[in-house]
């Protein structure tokens, strides 16, 4: 096994995913599109807003006051043909500004005087003297974007506000990348799924966490199976044997296993893949935790990631290998690193890279937050990651307090 550096492992995983990027797109209703990645830029056919509207409840006015306030049929006619000088009609927030209107006088600043079947609108005594300035409380059409402008870029992962932007531009459906599909195979004789485990047994960390983690990366877990430490059932679960009806393979399929990446009599993942003729793209990573992780292409073309059994090692390996593969499948960039300043030192380790969950801390002497590495960084410990703001990517030689290191945001 020749380990890849952490950064090579990420790049290899991203390139492998990108090479199998889906060449079909789905067209989905907005109500189904949350979490999908836009396959093409969304170009608005209309200006946004698409008509000049009032920002206040009040009166649209033309010329200087006092104004003749039109009501009923006269007001309707003026709204469609336009306002003459010295005329006003009432308007609601968001309402169409009639042609000829120069400003909106808000309700609080006007007084209506009724006399002999006609109405006059005056400035209220309390109104600021400059009211109504030209253009006051009018939102012109196209102030946010002109017609024909790109309101969402290709590659945007659609969050709730993006869906509102698409709706505002008049879209009912959008073209998105199909969701990457993930098959989970969770290994281990000692893993139990309910209750307090007896000594020698452990509660499963991955069944409750990985579907949500995969969803946060834009993927969907299409199947999840548990197998004991048995080579032939593991091979069946991985679809490496003809005994199991092969599910339809797609470019964007990823198989993820947990545990069994070591060399003990209970670990079968590497040997099964080797015997099946899989192409090992990453065979171990020079990182702690997560050293035994692997990435391979199965003989049927599906990509495969083997996560180590230790829970923290496994979830950090999601960041190292699974996130880059799924980003590549969806045509997205490799997740960016950003610099963080350490609040406390991170010790060196016998590996090129040390991954360490951290929390952001604000201290009175510094304008920028510092990263406090979690004390719960054993490969089986999850409470540090559960409360983390991100993960530090430290050199294996160790880093002193105040040192600058790259960091990854958590996708979940
Ligand atoms: N002789 C060596 N032993 C180990 C080495 C090594 O280099 N030489 N590496 C260690 C490292 S680092 C890791 S990480 C683990 C990798 O182990 P495996 O991927 O083979 O995983 P398992 O042996 O199946 O399990 C390891 C550990 O994780 C627990 N586990 C497994 N599944 C779950 C689950 N679903 N939920 C919670 N915990 C789980 C399992 O009980 C073990 O405690 O190997 C080291 N050993
Ligand atoms: O690298 Mo193991 O993955 O430390 O626990």
From TrEMBL:
The family this protein is said to belong to: Belongs to the MoeA family.
Domain MoaB/Mog, first and last residues per copy: 183-328
Matching InterPro entries: MoaB/Mog-like_dom_sf (IPR036425), MoaB/Mog_dom (IPR001453), MoCF_biosynth_CS (IPR008284), MoeA-like (IPR038987), MoeA_C_domain_IV_sf (IPR036688), MoeA_linker/N (IPR005110), MoeA_linker/N_sf (IPR036135)
Superkingdom assignment: Bacteria
Gene3D superfamilies named among the record's database cross-references: MoaB/Mog-like domain (3.40.980.10), MoeA, C-terminal, domain IV (2.40.340.10), Molybdopterin biosynthesis moea protein, domain 2 (3.90.105.10), Molybdopterin biosynthesis moea protein, domain 3 (2.170.190.11)
Function: Catalyzes the insertion of molybdate into adenylated molybdopterin with the concomitant release of AMP.
Pfam families, A to Z: MoCF_biosynth (PF00994), MoeA_N (PF03453)
Keywords: Magnesium, Metal-binding, Molybdenum, Molybdenum cofactor biosynthesis, Transferase
Protein name as annotated: Molybdopterin molybdenumtransferase
Organism: Plantibacter cousiniae
Region (Disordered): 118-150
SMART domains: MoCF_biosynth
Catalysis: reaction(s): adenylyl-molybdopterin + molybdate = Mo-molybdopterin + AMP + H(+)
Names of the cofactor(s): Mg(2+)
Pathway recorded for this protein: Cofactor biosynthesis; molybdopterin biosynthesis
TM segment ranges: none
UniProt-listed SUPFAM superfamilies: MoeA N-terminal region -like, Molybdenum cofactor biosynthesis proteins
Catalytic activity, EC: 2.10.1.1
């Amino acid at each position: 096994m020749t380990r890849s550096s952490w950064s090579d492992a990420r790049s290899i995983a991203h390139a492998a995913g990108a090479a199998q990027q889906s060449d079909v797109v789905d067209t989905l209703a907005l109500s189904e599109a949350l979490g999908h990645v836009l396959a093409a830029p969304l170009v608005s056919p209309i200006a946004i807003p698409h008509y000049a509207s009032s920002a206040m409840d009040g009166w649209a006015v033309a010329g200087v006051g006092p104004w003749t306030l039109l009501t009923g049929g006269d007001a309707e006619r003026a709204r469609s043909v336009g306002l003459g000088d010295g005329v006003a009609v009432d308007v609601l927030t968001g309402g169409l500004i009639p042609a000829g209107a120069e400003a909106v006088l808000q309700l609080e600043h006007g007084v209506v005087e009724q006399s002999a079947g006609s109405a006059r609108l005056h400035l209220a005594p309390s109104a600021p003297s400059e009211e109504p300035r030209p253009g006051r409380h009018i939102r012109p059409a196209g102030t946010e974007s002109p017609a024909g402008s790109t309101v969402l870029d290709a590659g945007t992962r659609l969050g709730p506000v993006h869906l509102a932007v698409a709706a505002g531009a008049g879209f009912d459906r959008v073209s998105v990348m199909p969701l990457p599909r993930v098959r989970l195979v969770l290994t281990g004789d000692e893993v139990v799924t309910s209750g307090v485990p007896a000594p020698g047994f452990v509660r499963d960390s991955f069944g409750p966490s990985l579907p949500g983690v995969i969803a946060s990366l834009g993927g969907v877990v299409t199947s999840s199976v548990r197998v004991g430490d048995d080579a032939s059932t593991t091979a069946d679960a991985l679809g490496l044997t003809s005994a199991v009806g092969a599910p339809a393979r797609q470019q964007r399929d990823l198989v993820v296993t947990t545990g069994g990446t070591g060399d003990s009599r209970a670990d079968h993942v590497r040997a099964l893949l080797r015997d099946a003729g899989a192409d090992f793209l990453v065979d171990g990573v020079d990182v702690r935790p997560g050293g035994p992780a692997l990435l391979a292409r199965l003989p049927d073309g599906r990509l495969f990631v083997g996560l180590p059994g230790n829970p923290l090692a496994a979830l950090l390996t999601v960041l190292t290998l699974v996130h880059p593969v799924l980003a590549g499948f969806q045509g997205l960039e490799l997740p960016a690193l950003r610099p963080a300043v350490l609040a406390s030192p991170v010790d060196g380790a016998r590996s090129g890279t040390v991954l360490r969950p951290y929390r952001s801390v604000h201290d009175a002497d510094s304008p920028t937050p510092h990263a406090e590495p979690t004390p719960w960084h054993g490969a089986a410990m999850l409470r540090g990651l559960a409360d983390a703001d991100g993960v530090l990517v430290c050199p294996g030689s160790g880093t002193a307090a105040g040192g600058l290191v790259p960091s990854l945001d958590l996708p979940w």
